[in-house]
Write a structure and sequence with these properties.
This protein is mostly helical. It contains seven helices and two strands; from the N terminus they run H-H-E-E-H-H-H-H-H. It has a two-stranded antiparallel sheet with strand order 1-2.
């Protein structure tokens, strides 16, 4: 029995029970406050981590070039920044050049001592490799539980939608083949995180090079 009457024999037992009860509630409250603070700190750290990675992504010159190529049907791109002649640094890249550059190497026959790809095409391929390596890296972070797709969405949604819907279908198919043939599996999985499938739709030989 419990009693709050100091003269009752059960008073000491009641007091002891109440002290333990309030002590437990106080401990739970402190735990709850600490947990909320921990979650808030973790969210802040994750946001800071995402912001750092996105800043690096958006600052990479090769990534910027890939973005320009994806965003414009035709544009002069600084593919050769190390050339001494300023004008020679820039090459006009259109959709035809892009599709040829991203062909699977097995479709390009080496003839008469010439390489399969021109210097411009190699530079475009290197540019896209850099862009895709970042996407691979972002998926690795998601897979490791460091960040979520939702945390990346505000920064990548434009490019996810662009590569999924906005770019011309024949160009998309060439890019999808490039991603698939050269094993950018993390990129494919990253797009699936956004409910977008980027697997090739038609045979590459019917869409590239024209």
């Amino acid at each position: 029995m419990f009693s709050l009457d100091p003269h009752n024999k059960d008073f000491i037992g009641t007091l002891d029970f109440l002290l333990k009860l309030f002590g437990g509630l106080g401990g739970f409250y402190l735990f709850f406050i600490g947990f909320r603070r921990y979650k808030k700190d973790q969210t802040w750290k994750r946001n800071e981590f995402v912001a750092k990675e996105i800043k690096e992504f958006n600052s990479d010159k090769m990534v910027i070039n890939a973005m320009f190529i994806l965003d414009w049907a035709e544009r002069y791109i600084e593919l050769f920044p190390d050339k001494s002649d300023y004008d020679e640094r820039f090459i006009k890249v259109d959709r035809t050049i892009l599709k040829k550059a991203l062909q699977f190497h097995g479709l390009r026959v080496k003839q008469d001592g010439y390489d399969r790809f021109t210097k411009t095409e190699v530079a475009i391929r290197d540019t896209f490799d850099q862009f895709l390596l970042y996407l691979e890296r972002f998926y690795q972070f998601i897979e490791a539980g460091l960040i979520t797709a939702d945390e990346l969405k505000p920064y990548l949604n434009y490019w996810i939608n662009g590569l999924s819907n906005e770019i011309e279908e024949d160009v998309r198919n060439v890019i999808y083949h490039y991603i698939d043939k050269y094993g950018f599996i993390g990129t494919q999985k990253l797009f699936m995180e956004f409910k977008k499938e980027i697997m090739p739709k038609t045979d590459i030989s019917t869409t590239s090079g024209s």
